[in-house]
Task: structure prediction
Amino acid sequence: MSQKSPLAAYIHIPFCRRRCYYCDFAITVTGDRALSNSSTMVVDYVNYLQQEIKLTSSPNTSLQTIFFGGGTPSLLPVAKLGEILTTIDQRLGIAKNAEISMEIDPGTFNQQQLQEYLRLGVNRFSLGVQTFDEKLLKVCGRSHDRQDIFTAIDLIKKLNVANWSLDLITGLPQQTLEQVERSLEIAIATEPKHLSCYDLVLEPVTAFGKQYHPGEQPLPSENDTAAMYKLTQQMLTNRGYQHYEISNYAQPGYQCRHNKVYWHNESYYGFGMSAASYVAGKRYTRPRTRKEYYSWVENGALIEVEEMTKSDRLLETLMLGLRLAEGVSLSKISQEFEQQTVDRILSGLQSYLEQNLVEIFTANHDQRLRLTDPKGFLLSNTIIASLFEIFE
Result:
């Protein structure tokens, strides 16, 4: 399933104005000062990033998707983003119809920047809104306010950006169901082609992780977060968005091609500090700090691979594929892992099948397994954990 040459690449741009209280990503905090083409940290990082890309073996195929994530990629000067894309194209090739996505935050770009990103070939933008509630933006430690959000959306619309996504978070401290509903109403009115709606995850090293405990106030209760999830699903699907992945919704034809590479457990490159790759059935992650990353590149970007066993591949295929509304192909699992494996899966999930949390269906003569929406998606962690118990 994952032995083909990668057709996707993730590029990590670590710069952020400040660290949001829920964030555990590998970032470099820059403060409010603008980053220029001559900023030492920018020049150094882009140089090392290009070196790493150049150390990668050239494939026979061109990239179909590229994703600039972070961090806040829109803090990177346009010229530096262009240098990175040129290096990628020269070393790995970029297909003519490639999806090139970029995360952007309100208050970090202007009209000229957006025009330049489009000119460079970026054709999909993911706007990090998180909430339209002014109070909750401050609770999260976001660097933007409501007006910044509306200004950013106006710029996107003014330039007729065809493909853009909007990110929201539910389950935030002090957040109510009414606030979620209001943010969704505003989001729908702005007409993005895609929405990512994530439930807050408390990571131990974050400010939220140190300050709050699951199930305790001021965090919403488990029942409240379930209600938020169901409300999100209902409001967005009623307005024509396809709920194609646990946390993602898209208008027809606008599913994120890059992220589906992950969920289909296909190969991909990762470049930059903390970025992960999955190449030739082997997974590996780069150092999380700039200093360690630079040293690693200087030493030839030697990879310490995580060997994936057959059992690992199976469990990852199930764990990732069951996040999708299309589910996983039982036929393909039977071909790669034998029919006995499919029998064990179905036997282990019998109680969930009876509760209508999991279902078997046929699409294009292919027998498939998926979680039901929204009941099965809400219990995805429990269901997937039971699969791990069967095969570990």
About this structure: The first strand starts at residue 8 and ends at 13. The chain has a mean pLDDT of 95.
